[in-house]
Amino acid sequence: GSKLASTPADNYYLARRRTLQVVVSSLLTEAGFESAEKAAVETLTEMLQSYISEIGRSAKSYCEHTARTQPTLSDIVVTLVEMGFNVETLPAYAKRSQRMVITAPPVTNQPVTPKALTAGQNKPHPSHIPGHFPEFPDPHTYIKTPTYREPVSDYQVLREKAASQRRDVERALTRFMAKTGETQSLFKDDVSTFPLIAARPFTVPYLTALLPSELEMQQMEETDSSEQDDQTDTENLPLHMSTDDSGPEKENASVLQQNNSLSGSRNGEENLIDNPYLRPVKKPKIRRKK
Amino acid sequence: MNRKKGDKGFESPRPYKLTHQVVCINNINFQRKSVVGYVELTIFPTVANLNRIKLNSKQCRIYRVRVNDLEAAFIYNDPTLEVCHHESKQRNLNYFSNAYAAAVSAVDPDAGNGELCIKVPSELWKHVDELKVLKVHINFSLDQPKGGLHFVVPNMEGSMAERGAHVFSCGYQNSTRFWFPCVDSYSELCTWKLEYTVDAAMVAVSNGDLVETVYTHDMRKKTFHYMLTIPTAASNISLAIGPFEILVDPYMHEVTHFCLPQLLPLLKHTTSYLHEVFEFYEEILTCRYPYSCFKTVFIDEAYVEVAAYASMSIFSTNLLHSAMIIDETPLTRRCLAQALAQQFFGCFISRMSWSDEWVLKGISGYIYGLWMKKTFGVNEYRHWIKQELDQIVAYELKTGGVLLHPIFGGGKEKDNPASHLHFSIKHPHTLSWEYYTMFQCKAHLVMRLIENRISMEFMLQVFNKLLSLASTASSQKFQSHMWSQMLVSTSGFLKSISNVSGKDIQPLIKQWVDQSGVVKFYGSFAFNRKRNVLELEIKQDYTSPGTQKYVGPLKVTVQELDGSFNHTLQIEENSLKHDIPCHSKSRRNKKKKIPLMNGEEVDMDLSAMDADSPLLWIRIDPDMSVLRKVEFEQADFMWQYQLRYERDVVAQEEAILALEKFPTPASRLALTDILEQEQCFYRVRMMACFCLAKIANSMVSTWTGPPAMKSLFTRMFCCKTCPNIVKTNNFMNFQSYFLQKTMPVAMALLRDVHNLCPKEVLMFILDLIKYNDNRKNKFSDNYYRAELIDALANSVTPAVSVNNEVRTLDNLNPDVRLILEEITRFLNMEKLLPSYRHTITVSCLKAIRVLQKNGHVPSDPALFKSYAEYGHFVDVRIAALEAVVDYTKVDRSYEELQWLLTMVQNDPVPYIRHKILDMLTKNPPFTKNMESPLCNEALVDQLWKLMNSGTSHDWRLRCGAVDLYFTLFGLSRPSCLPLPELGLVLNLKEKKAVLNPTIIPESVANNQEPVNNTNNHGQLVGFQNTFSNSQEEEEIDMDTVHDSQAFIYHHLNMLERPSTPGKEQSSGEVNMHPVSAAPLSVFSKESNSSKHSDHHHHHHHEHKKKKKKHKHKHKHKHKHDNKEKEKDPFAFSNSPASARSIRSPSLSD
């Protein structure tokens, strides 16, 4: 069954098909048929359509092969020759006497291919490009458009941001901890506004209290590498109010050097340091029993 | 007592001389917290008829005593276990203090006494008469010691070494007797052999040289052998055992440092400075460090931060720090330097008697001060001296005086030189801890005064002389009589000073050492224009308690227009006025620069001063060469000049203090200028902050411009482009770091006309917290953040409360809400990223208490109680406990007071126990003149029991309990006690009780009833001296005299052989229980002790069931309220000393 055409494109194709059917029918009449089954007509129409389509397709290929966009008569001829059609018989056939004249297919609108979304004005060709060349594509397909805002370089805003970011992270984190664990509260009637993570005793309390946290260690490494010189200088300086007595300090320096050489040698042989706590533990002597 | 005999020699209070002692601890059980070992003392009798040897021993369970391999009888009596025995209804502190002093005296090694009395077996009498050597061998054990040795055993999985379990000796003054029997005196020196067998994963650190370390046969343990060849007092012997990490000092290989696992990086950093201290002391003393090695051990739950012992020091592990920590660094270095100073004076050189203690503390404190001056500069040193001076002055004025060199005549309480105090100063063990701290403070200040008099050069020569004498003596290995050269005495020291300097310092000594009290000067002046004379009036208050009259020279410095001039006035009996001629005519030449004391010439704006007078400022005793308090009156502009132009930091601090009373724009300007001046000493600038805050508050109605210090802070520490944001932290400059920390704290004290902290200031502080950024800083900002929280707390003002509504969230002040928000976040973040020493938690807890106290948050101790639990870091616990103490006071909570007192008794950490009492004393829930619902009979009983018997294992704690009792109830009978109903009867009883300790000091012991302490160190034997006193005879405590036959036997025995002549002979005689030579091996093993006690019970019952039962029934009536104490009457039979009671019958048979 045939479907009811609805779109303009369908109408267009239907009209052409109907014309082809008329052509097939008239050719059949010419050949002496009085009637034909519908299926046969349909098949023949299909064959004709295929044939014509093939001619078009081949002709287009030939023309493109020769770097053109529009097929010429010779393209059609070559196509027909290639398809095994004797071209020379064509003028005579066209002028046969019993041919029937068929009305042109009804004028229907060429189906419009939906336009791609255009963004902005397409650029005209520069003068050195021939006008037949395809147009520039839409600008958005090749022009870089900034997708970020201007970087914030204002110190104040940066600090503001860093501060609030840190505060938010801390608050969220501590609230989460408070929500998931035991809490204490300063108000009997309210446990959620100022939730305090419950105090939990440690087994070895001094470790957490004295050792720097990993974060701090990391920080220290970072700052150390960049400011190593400063460190050695300032370590003692601000605490030494009087720097003028250089006597003992000089001595210290010499002692330091001496000891450096000592400690240097230590790396090689630990045993050079005669410290009783570093000596190996002795095996028990065999003692007579008491 | 013995010092006065002669200046040259030291006369031992003992009839023998100790030359060598072996201490061998062969088993330490961390699980059970027990120790097993023996000691062997080598002694030479110095009198022919030596028949008993008194030694010190507390807590130790003594299994067996042998003298030269012969079994010896011994008795063990410690009257300090329970000071007052008869149920004293009077309960007054006077009575207690006397009894306590008598009890301490009765076992005082410096009086030749001791808790342990060993009878020399009769077989050896002949030997003794020839003054031949005796070897006293004592097997002992310690079970769960409550003092002397402290075990730290974390409750977790793993072996003891993995857990970081450790043990160390500790105590206040001579406390070695708590962990092994010895002569626990600073004056009995001997050489030592120390042996400790410990788990192979552990290290035992002790005194002297580690000779060798040997595995035991099973290879599971090793034995550390130490030799200490320098004669040393038992009180300077120490021990620390734990799975320590070992660090050999890279600069001095003889020095070894020890710390607990995981802390090695901190140890490296912390001790990296120590060699400089060594060098300094060796240089100024021109003397090498006396010992061949030095060890530092850092341990947890320390009794004190620094404890110095022969060739080793024990420090709190909390002194360790990393390179990121600023504030702790100088503090820790000071502790190290203090410990090292005490190595020379205190450990190597010991003292003859308690009354010479001030010399040692004085010298070590003095050379420590010299180190401070060199290390931290003159400003810091002078600031410190001023601080110490202020402290001692305040303490003496409060309590009535600190006496450095007490001399006791005959030991009668009436001659007590410190009758103004509620404790006896005759013994270190009866001394309040605060008094002792102040005593040390005064000692070094007096040394400085001596230096002022004889010059530092001579002073150091004296020290050098003492040290070289001692080191010569110490090398005399076999001449123990020479060893007394290693003991310093007051007279010896003074003689040395007069020999070296040729100066007579006797008046100075008389004033500050032999006498207590400080001087209180009031000064004012007038300028007499006509005569061009400064009329200075100096008055003294010498009638108030704690003061004394000063007669002698006094330096006054007058800064005039033409320069600074020193005048020495003679302060005499009746002259108050002193005329000082001025050098300058009143100002003529305005342009001239003004010369200062240090030679500097400066331009001054002289418009503020009085046109008629050439005086800029006046200072009395600028060098602090008198222990004094000066209240001096001069005009505000003079103080301002003094602050701006006087270069001495002490003068600047005095000026700042004085300016508080002059809230004027000129004062404000002077302070602001000082604050901004970078050359100015940072502590002065910090002080100026607080003064400025006070002035601003007084000037609140006329104050113009932004809040004080705000623009200054902004200029110094905030970004140039955005002044409301603080720069990212950079603490490289420590002076500005300290200022940056302090300014917000001071600013938060500002108040507006409504007496509220200005909103602007609060927002400013909140912004500092908000924008604080430490990412680029190489130092930790934990102290800075903590102080910002302190600042928040300072900004809190009392809540406006409408008819006492209950505090809820809804009526929370919006400012307080902001503060709480910060505190909550900080406190919670501490759980995730803890700060060094949890400084932030500490500040948060304090701030919360402030909010509670001001009525913004409901007052509730629950939070603090959870932070006060064992297992939190000690600083946090103290802060939490302080809040609970404060709550107890403000809310008058009996429950909380009970909770605190329970903790005093049960907390595992001695320092915490001590600190709670200390805090309760400083912030008492009530005082003696106050009505309080808390003050009731039960509390009196409880505290009485605490000091009477509950704290016998820790001198410091007991004295702390005494202090608290004094604060709460005063010296006399607590007012809350009901009046005695049968006054007459009770009085009689009391009379006797009072009399006893005074007339016969040891009768306290005589009247002793069995004390059943919770642990097993109550071994008591009542001892009676003679049969003469019939009344006392009736009172013979039969439960302790196990067998009357044996008792009589011994007395006969005693009579046969007269007791050793001694000064204390008259007072107490000891009855002896000779011990049969029966095999005792059973008792020397711990595992058998329970068996033994069962066994023992049996005998016990048979012998004295009747009497004892009777007696105890009687006691029940008295003490029905006292369940804890009332134990099984035979509980003590489990005590070690009772081992002998099994044997006594067999002997008497």
Question: What features would you describe in this structure?
Answer:
- The complex is a heterodimer of chains A (290) and B (1149).
- Chain A is mainly alpha-helical.
- Among the domains of chain A are: 8-95, Orthogonal Bundle (Histone, subunit A); 159-224, no CATH class.
- In chain A, 8% of the residues are buried.
- Chain A is elongated.
- Chain A is 49% helix and 1% strand.
- Chain A has a two-stranded antiparallel ribbon.
- Chain B is of the alpha+beta class and 1149 residues long.
- Chain B is built from 34 helices and 31 strands.
- In chain B, a hairpin with a 4-residue loop joins strand 1 and strand 2.
- In chain B, helix 8 packs across helix 9.
- At the A-B interface, helix 5, strand 2, helix 6, helix 7 and helix 8 of A face strand 13, helix 5, helix 7, helix 8 and helix 21 of B.
List the main descriptive attributes of the protein structure presented here.
heterodimer, A: 290 residues, mainly alpha, Histone, subunit A, two-stranded antiparallel ribbon, 2 strands, B: 1149 residues, alpha+beta, eight-stranded mixed β-sheet, five-stranded mixed β-sheet, 34 helices, 39% helix, globular, disordered N terminus, disordered C terminus, transcription (chain A), Histone-fold (chain A), Transcription initiation factor TFIID subunit 8 (chain A), protein biosynthesis (chain A), cytoplasm (chain A)
The termini of chain A sit apart by 121 Å
CATH architecture of the domain at 8-95 in chain A, by name, is Orthogonal Bundle
Tally of separate helices of chain B? 34
Distance from first to last alpha carbon of chain B: 43 Å
Beta strand % of chain B: 15-25%
Percentage of residues in helical conformation of chain B: 25-40%
Give the overall silhouette of chain B: globular
Strand arrangement across the biggest beta sheet of chain A: 1-2
Could you tell me the radius of gyration of chain B in angstroms?
A: 32 Å
The CATH superfamily of the domain at 8-95 in chain A appears as Histone, subunit A
Oligomeric description of these chains: heterodimer
Helix content of chain A: 40-55%
Name the helix and strand elements of chain A from N-terminus to C-terminus, one letter apiece. HHHHHEEHHHH
Average pLDDT taken over every residue of chain A: 76
Q: Provide the spatial order of strands within the biggest beta sheet of chain B.
A: 5-4-8-2-1-11-14-13
* Low-pLDDT regions of chain A: 226-271
**Could you say which overall geometry of chain A the principal axes of the C-alpha atoms support?**
elongated
Rg over alpha carbons of chain A: 49 Å
The largest chain-to-chain contact, stated as pair and per-chain residue counts, equals: A-B, 78 and 103 residues
Biggest pleated sheet of chain A: 2 strands, antiparallel
Region (Disordered) (chain A): 218-290
Biased composition (Basic residues) (chain A): 280-290
Family (chain A): Belongs to the TAF8 family.
Domain Bromodomain associated (chain A): 12-89
